[in-house]
Amino acid sequence: MSNTNTTDERDLGQAGEQLSTAPREESVTSVPAMGVIGWARWFWRQLTSMRVALILLFLLSLGAIPGSLIPQNSVDELKVQTFKEAHTTVTPVYEKLQLFDVYSSVWFSAIYILLFVSLIGCIVPRTGQFISQLRSRPPGAPKKLTRLPAYTTWRTDAEPELVREAALGVLRKRRFRSHVVGDAVSAEKGYLRETGNLLFHIALIVMLVAFAGGQLFKSEGGKLIVEGDGFANTITQYDDFKSGSLFDKDDLAPFSFDLHEFVGTYERNGPQRGTPRTYEARVTYAEGADGEPKKKVIEVNKPLDVDGTKVYLNAHGYAPVISVKDGRGKEVYRNAVPLLPIDNNVTSTGAIKVMDGYKDKDGRKSQLGFQAFFVPTFAGDGQGTMFSQYPGLDYPVLALNGYHGSLGVDSGLPQNVYQLDTSKMKEFKDSNGDQLKKRLRPGETMKLPDGAGSITFESVEEWASFQITRQPASGWALTGAVAAIAGLAGSLFIQRRRVWVRTVRGTDGVTVVEMAGLGRSESAKLPEELADLAVAVHTVAPTAPEPDPDPAPETETEPGQPAEEPSEGAEK
């Protein structure tokens, strides 16, 4: 195989070269025998080869798989902690492999940087070669056109110069770059293939830079807002907040919004009963400190966009409005308490914490805590349990049981607002000595024993959770992705090819026309295209008629002698 390729290159000469800017791959056997410079040069050539770039791109895609399957600290630390508690065996291995921080791990960053260097080292020399090819003319015709994959020839009475001019006009009309070199016309087409190839690699670099910039300068956080409350885009307003290592708090876009109403509709009947149909958060927002208020409806996948910051509707739930009175009848607490959904029918749980203002029957300061279980559409009565059979507020019921003592909020340790720490609290008991618990409908009250006060389920508000995200390079990433697809399509579907038309006068004075084509890769379209070109040229230089065969010499006969009779058996 190598001998054949060498022979073809020697026969075609420059005509078979520079159809691509791809560097020649070096085999392992060509490694320099010694020398630091030689080894460094060999390593650089391997790193900037297309083969290694594809391997690194595959490794980058492979390395991103754990990041989508294993909880990440950069996304949700609570899920990571839950995963570690549930998988104590594999957790030490995952931690050593940095699988909980894949995208900031050493091995993922190494692949990322090597791919970046490989693409740049591959693109820069190829771009220079391609520019020089654009500035140069197509090479002259090889000596033996018959060796090319597409070939045709005929004889014509037209003059060689006339045929060359006709071929030059036909090729230029078909948008070939063409010129006359000696006795042949050289033409080339399909430069967009290499342009698409370079565009694809440049687009990959743009995407890599955009993703890196997005991770370094990004900011994202969550905020749960009850109807009637609002949010201002400052770090202290977030429930949770994460940012890139180069993020500056001054980069936060100045805006605010108020949640006026959340509207959720659900399928009423059929097998899809309870499936959400509409999730709408109706807000009023303002840009800057003195911006004009504007109304906006935020829906799923239809965020509010303010100066590059997007506000996504993330989740929804219910917040029962609770009021608490002490033993003297003084209201010490009134608030809408958000509860977390635990199923598709928005069955919700949470905790109600009365931290300040409450005094027991003896006038001593104390704290109250209530475990809450809420269903928007009650079911399960008489079955020993309660559950929700529909996510809408058709028949809301709130179940409570209470504690008194210390909530532990003064210890300095962070607490989950949806969980109740009862380690330093005592249960309220009913008259039978059992745990005090009761189901309440809106407007109903549960009295606490021994004159400790009461708790009332006033009404139900709705809450919405928002994800506020700023990705400064998302537009560049999208542009790079679109450009990469366009460049890949061009490099796959456009074929770079060359065509030669040679016209020489034969020994008998008749012009011999030869046409041949050469493509970067074998394709059935090249012979078809050459045939179309040959037909177009043939209309100007038609095939010459074949010369008449020489007439047979006549045999002379003597005067008076009859002509020779045909031999026996010959047809008359």
- Discrete helix count: 10
> What proportion of the residues form beta strands (DSSP E)?
25-35%
Instruction: Give unreliable regions as ranges.
Output: 1-9, 563-572
Q: Please tell me the overall pLDDT.
A: 86
Helix content: 25-40%
Distance between the termini: 61 Å
Count of β-strands: 24
Quaternary structure: single chain
Global outline:
elongated
Keywords for this entry:
7-stranded antiparallel beta sheet; 24 strands; disordered N terminus; alpha+beta; 6-stranded antiparallel beta sheet; elongated; single chain; disordered C terminus; 29% helix; 10 helices; 572 residues
Explain what this protein looks like in three dimensions.
The structure is a single chain. With 572 residues, this protein is of the alpha+beta class. Helix content is 29%, strand content 29%. The protein is built from 10 helices and 24 strands. Strands 4, 6, 10, 11, 12, 21 and 22 form a 7-stranded antiparallel sheet that branches. Strands 13, 14, 15, 18, 19 and 20 form a 6-stranded antiparallel sheet that branches. The protein has a 5-stranded antiparallel sheet with strand order 1-24-23-3-2, covered by helices on one side. Helix 3 packs antiparallel against helix 6, helix 6 packs antiparallel against helix 8 and helix 8 packs antiparallel against helix 9. The longest helix has 30 residues. The two termini are 61 Å apart.
